[in-house]
Amino acid sequence: MSVALRKAPDSESFPLEAGGVAADRRHGRAAQTNRSGRFEPLSYELVDDGWDTLAELDALATEVQEVPARRIITRNESPDIGFDRSINPYRGCEHGCVYCFARPTHAFLGLSPGLDFETKLFAKTNAAQALERELAEPNYRVRMIAIGTNTDPYQPIERRYRIMRRILEVLSATNHPVGIVTKSALVLRDLDILQSMAKRGLVKVALSVTTLDRRLARAMEPRASTPDKRLETLERLSAAGVPTSVMVAPVIPALTDAEMERILERAAAAGVKEAGYVLLRLPLEIGDLFTEWLRANCPDRANRVLSLMRQTRGGKLYDAKWGERMEGNGPYAWMIGRRFEMAAERLGLNKRSTELRTDLFVPSARPGQQLRLL
Fold first, then answer.
1. CA 361 to CA 285: how far, in whole Å?
2. Residues 3-12: pLDDT tens digits?
3. Could you tell me the end-to-end alpha-carbon distance of the chain, in angstroms, rounded to an integer?
4. C-alpha atoms less than 13 angstroms from C-alpha of 127 in its C-beta half-sphere
5. How far apart are CA 74 and CA 84, in angstroms?
6. With a threshold of 0.85, does the pTM exceed it?
7. Domains defined along the chain, listed by start
């Protein structure tokens, strides 16, 4: 076995075979390749030197590196999202959703947004302690914290690390509002905390459902909970009094968009009161990763999907323009939006938005700080 080095291409598209990884080595993973990120001057590719040694390589295993976080609350000024702060307990995500818009962040670590993103994970083990410190800062002003906006806080390694649960314990103790987005039924493990916070108006939980097709979900989102399990989770959360919403996300033209109404119907039947959708986003390396996946798993529809994506993005696979990156533009994108609105109206969704309380917040005591008498 030898490793070939070459200059990373400057163009947007890479050869589909570059950085390819054998199917048996990436079983249970979505990305087809593991080429270097956009900041690397060289790309690395395994090449069989004639001795068939590539066949001797082990299957890709999940590796977790524990890293301390100096600060845990991330701020943003994006004008088209409804929060200005978030927490990401992990970097990388074992769910492995091939379309995940967080994949390019692995390039900042010198890793691949492909298979590295699914297998080389980072756990911020001191996240709860860092959160306590930040909430205790004199100039902290309370607003909802969003969790799960980048990588899933309830991905499989959370069973072992329990970072998200410790974060929720801090937020509950300080009466701090939080909005959670996940694809995992593991959120039910923390139902005791969520139910308590819901009674105080401090939490809402959204589950993302891309498709109801188990086989398609298995290929696209290989280690996330099954679609039925996500809907069951929404039903149990709703029955426990936790405000829930369903995200039909991402909507993929000619692949999953026909399921939008059925997903909303199932969610409404589960007791969900709010819903949203996001059109497929393919920034940076994700365009190539998704194209590779599409041609490998849905070759009969690949050209149609890519053509419609370009029709919704001004002729490109992606346009990051504020106000349009979530919903796209053009006739096809307009039709998806109107279908969503009509289905939501028919099902009684989005009649009102859950507003979380901020007036109950009591910051953690700083080291050496005298506790208030009253």
1. 40
2. 343 344 433 3
3. 70
4. 28
5. 8
6. yes
7. 2-346 (3.80.30.30)
